[in-house]
């Protein structure tokens, strides 16, 4: 799988060198988004309930951490703060305040997942896993919005998907 365009098209020139960043890749799946940072020397913590991809990630990036955790169990992992938090194709609303708390002062949140219009196109179609209109903007309103998009995107298989994207910065320096 390819790294999300939201990450690769972002203007990283105004931020610390990528090899100095601490990155959290939540519900990472294969880890392809976090791997983009790890390839550039960043310290990435990959978190997923399914550890299937972990052996390959550990071999490729021995400097990174891997954490098998069910983010929906209610027992959230004790993690510090990060310069970058990645959430792609995952939605568990009770986790949102915890995500905000993982952002260090100046930290960036990259969030992209399906919105309610996706149900007309196919899976996922369960409203529990689909964002309402402007939900990311409202949920992360304490953060400074750098980019927001809601609408149709074309995936790597040339299939249309309805998604919302948010890049936001913790400019107020919220902490635990």
From TrEMBL:
Pfam families the record matches? Methyltransf_25
Its Gene Ontology biological processes?
methylation
GO MF, one term, reads:
methyltransferase activity
Indicate the secretion signal residues.
none
Q: Per the database record, which ranges form the Methyltransferase domain?
A: 23-92
What are the UniProt keywords, alphabetically? Answer: Methyltransferase, Transferase
Task: Name the source's superkingdom.
Answer: Bacteria
Q: What name has this protein been given in UniProt?
A: Methyltransferase family protein
Q: Which organism is it from?
A: Shewanella fodinae
């Amino acid at each position: 799988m390819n790294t999300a365009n939201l990450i690769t098209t972002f203007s990283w020139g105004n931020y610390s060198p990528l090899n100095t960043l601490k990155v959290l890749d939540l519900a990472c799946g294969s880890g392809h988004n976090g791997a983009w940072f790890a390839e550039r020397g960043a310290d990435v913590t990959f978190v997923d309930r399914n550890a299937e991809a972990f052996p390959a990630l550990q071999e490729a990036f021995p400097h990174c951490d891997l954490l098998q955790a069910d983010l929906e169990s209610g027992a959230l992992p004790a993690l510090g703060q990060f310069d970058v938090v990645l959430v792609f194709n995952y939605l568990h609303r009770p986790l949102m305040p915890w995500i905000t708390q993982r952002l260090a002062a100046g930290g960036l949140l990259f969030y992209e997942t399906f919105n309610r219009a996706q149900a007309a196109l196919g899976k996922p179609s369960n409203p529990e896993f689909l964002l309402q209109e402007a939900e990311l903007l409202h949920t992360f309103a304490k953060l400074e919005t750098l980019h927001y998009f809601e609408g149709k995107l074309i995936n790597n298989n040339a299939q249309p998907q309805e998604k919302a994207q948010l890049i936001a910065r913790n400019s107020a320096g919220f902490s635990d």
